[in-house]
Amino acid sequence: MATKAKDTKVLEEGGNVDKIREILFGGQMRQYERRFEEMEARIKSELDELRALINKQVSSLDEWARREVDRLDARNQDEKKERYEAVKKLEDSLRESSDQAHKTVQILDERMTSEQRELRAQMRSQAQSFEASLADWRESLKHDTTQLGQRLEQDKVSKQDLAGFLSEMALRLQGEFELPES
To answer: How far is the C-alpha of 62 from the C-alpha of 34, rounded, in Å?
Structure first.
């Protein structure tokens, strides 16, 4: 029981301390409390404003990022379309150049074939003309040779005349043959 009475006394004294504290510092404490509440309200208000400003800035940044992504996407699509058109144009140009080259080669091939045919025909014609000239020349040579042979046959000295001529020459060289005086 002595402990219980002691505890009650401490509580009463503690209550007195609170009263003394209230008397001495109560006005200041209420003033501090009011200031803290005002500061807390002001901080909360500024935090709300800051939060709203940040949200607005984030929204603005998000909107700008979306516009920028859309702009870049549109630019990318335009560039892609331009590249596609450029590649298609290049393919068409290459195809046209290839077709033109093929036609040119075909024309040159036909022209070369035609010129080869004409050249062969000219060569054949010249060969035939040459063969005809050669045949004529051969015939002429044969005819001339035959005529020359006939003339030689006519003009040739007989064996007996030649033997007599050579005998006479031998006698003259030996000095045994005398010429008749005229």
So the answer is: 40
| Confidence class for position 37, pLDDT limits 50, 70, 90 | very high
- Tokens for 131, please give them: 């063969």
Confidence (pLDDT) at 69: 95
Please report which confidence band the pLDDT of residue 8 belongs to, taking 50, 70 and 90 as the band edges.
low
In which residue are the tokens 């005819």 written?
Answer: 143
Q: How far apart are CA 142 and CA 136, in angstroms?
A: 10
At 122, the amino acid letter reads Q
The H-assigned helical ranges of the chain are 2-155, 159-174
Cα 179 to chain center, whole Å?
110
Q: Residue 171: CB partners within 8 Å, gap ≥ 6?
A: 177
